[in-house]
Amino acid sequence: MAQSQEQAFALLSDYSRRIFLFNGKTKDYFLMPDGRYMRFELVLHEYLKKELNYDIVAFVDHNGLFFWDEESAREAMQAKG
C-alpha cells in the first residue's frame, strides 16, 4: 500500500501525538520466542499495535508511505480528511 512522497508528507504534516523512529536499511531479523523470524519493521509494528494499542502505525521508505495492516491504512486515510 505505498503512497507517493507528497501524500506521505501531507498525512504526516500534523505530527502532534506521533512518534517518529528512524532506522537504516539494515533488514534486521529477530528470532521471536515462538521460533518465528521477523523483520524489525514487523516486530515494531506488532509491539505498537498489540502492546501499546496504537491505532495507526505507518512506515515511510524510498517507495513512500506504507502500512503493514489494513486498519492502519483505513484509519490514516480517514484521519487526513
The portion of residues forming beta strands comes to 5-15%
Q: How many domains, in number, for the residues? A: 1
Describe the global form.
globular
| H and E order | HEEHEEH
* CA distance, first residue to last residue: 18 Å
**What share of residues is helical?**
25-40%
**How would a crystallographer describe the biggest sheet?**
2 strands, antiparallel
The overall average pLDDT, rounded, is: 78
Structural class: alpha+beta
Largest beta sheet: what is the strand line-up? 1-2
Number of strands: 4
pLDDT < 50 stretches: none
DSSP helix count?
A: 3
Radius of gyration using CA atoms only:
13 Å
Describe this structure in words.
By secondary structure, the protein is of the alpha+beta class. It has one domain (5-80). It has helices at 5-12, 40-51, 70-80, and strands spanning 29-31, 37-39, 59-61, 64-66. The model has no long low-confidence stretch (mean pLDDT 78).
Task: Give a summary of the structure in a few sentences.
By secondary structure, the chain is of the alpha+beta class.
Question: Descriptors for this entry?
Answer:
81 residues, single chain, two-stranded antiparallel sheet, 3 helices, 4 strands, two-stranded antiparallel ribbon, alpha+beta, 38% helix
Topology overview:
Elements: H1 5-12, E1 29-31, E2 37-39, H2 40-51, E3 59-61, E4 64-66, H3 70-80
Antiparallel strand pairs: 1-2, 3-4
